[in-house]
Amino acid sequence: MRRTLLDLDVLASLASGVELGSFARAADRLGRSTSAVSAQMKKLEEQAGVAILRKSGRGLELTPAGEVLLSYARRLLELNDEAVEATRGASLAGCVRLGLAEDFGEGVLPLALGRFARACPDVRVEMRVARSQELQQLVMAGELDLALAWDSGPRAPHSAAIGRYAVHWIGPASGQLAPGPLPLALFDPPCVIRAQACGALDRAGRPWRMAASGSSLAGLWSAVRAGLGVSARTAIQLPSGLRILDPALHGLPPLPAIDLLLCRAESRPAAPAQRLHDILLAQLTAPGVEAEALNIDN
Fold first, then answer.
1. Dihedral of CA 206/210/214/218: which sign?
2. Which residues pair with 232 in a beta bridge?
3. Is 79 helix (H, G, I), strand (E, B) or coil?
4. Alpha-helical regions (H) of 49-131
5. Which residues does the chain have with pLDDT short of 70?
6. What is the dihedral of CA 79, 164, 16, 27, to 10 degrees?
7. Which residue, 3, 26, 54, 164, shows the most beta carbons closer than 10 Å to its own?
8. Of residues 245, 260, 259, the one with CA closest to residue 294
9. CA distance 229 to 221
């Protein structure tokens, strides 16, 4: 039986079309005509032997077989990128100094560092976990090459917002808020989310008291889980035993979203730092990455 070899360019068109919600927009991004992309999809269906797209109103949507193929397409494209990175990174050596907020220690970091280790096996990574404001200061001082931090102002010169995340009120998984001043469990100042949370409560006329504070995110989560108070944070890596509180149900004001920054010490980092920068960027902006698929109190 003759082996069927899927074309990565065709798979890239499929992934782009689904990501952008339009194969016409995918054609623009890829520098092809719409008819060329349509021909690619026809070729892909012929290779698959089943329909992968069907009409839905004025557009197209994936069939069940198309959803399966899209999942493999993304994995094949990622593996292709890793192969290129590993080939180019085989001669790289040295050290990259990376700083990051605690939020990213368990989810994003292992995946990104695993990919970086395969691409650049001879490069050492020195990591520092700290508060976002400190991380940006270290980047500006040249003590870190890269940092993944929340926008706490002022921004490091070579930083870019790579995502905007909702900030939620976070409480224990069960139980109701007691009457009286709202007990809070927040980071010690300076902390932009602490300032925004307290300011929002003041503007809403909701009394509050600081029940717990500290510099460790794990410590704050423990305080919330124990029922000492509620916190304010994004939903990234929200541990078990906690839930997002619905502001309308608890008389809480909405909180402003916050930008996630990827900061560089230099506009053109050395090759190892640039490679890790690109991997982190791809990891955090990949289609299908769900930062907030968590339970919301209702």
1. negative
2. 169
3. helix
4. 64-89, 108-119
5. 1, 85-92, 105-108, 286-298
6. -140
7. 26
8. 245
9. 10
Q: Which ranges constitute the DSSP H helices of the chain? A: 8-20, 23-30, 34-48, 64-89, 108-119, 132-140, 192-204, 217-225, 247-250, 271-285
> Which tokens go with 207?
């009394």
Q: Cα–Cα distances in Å, from 295 out to 228, 241, 243, 245?
A: 21, 11, 6, 9
pLDDT at 171: 94
Asked whether the bond before 190 is cis by omega within 30 degrees of 0, the reply is yes
16-52 pLDDT, tens per residue? 888 888 888 888 888 888 888 888 888 888 888 888 8
Which two structure tokens, joined as six digits, stand for 85? 């990175």
Residue 163 has phi, psi (to 5 degrees) of 180, 155
Task: Give the sign of the dihedral formed by CA 280, CA 283, CA 285, CA 291.
Answer: negative
Task: Please measure the distance between the N-terminal and C-terminal CA atoms of the chain and give it in whole angstroms.
Answer: 55
* Number of other CB atoms surrounding residue 276 within 10 Å: 24
Residue type (1 letter), 150: W
The single residue listed with the structure tokens 């944070």 is 233
Token pair, residue 75, equals 């994995």
What per-residue confidence (pLDDT) applies to 150? 93
Cα gap 224→218, rounded to integer Å: 10
d(CA 110, CA 201) in angstroms, rounded, equals 36
Neighbours of 61 (CB within 10 A): 13
The CA-atom distances, in angstroms, between 287 and each of 19, 145, 220 are 6, 26, 31
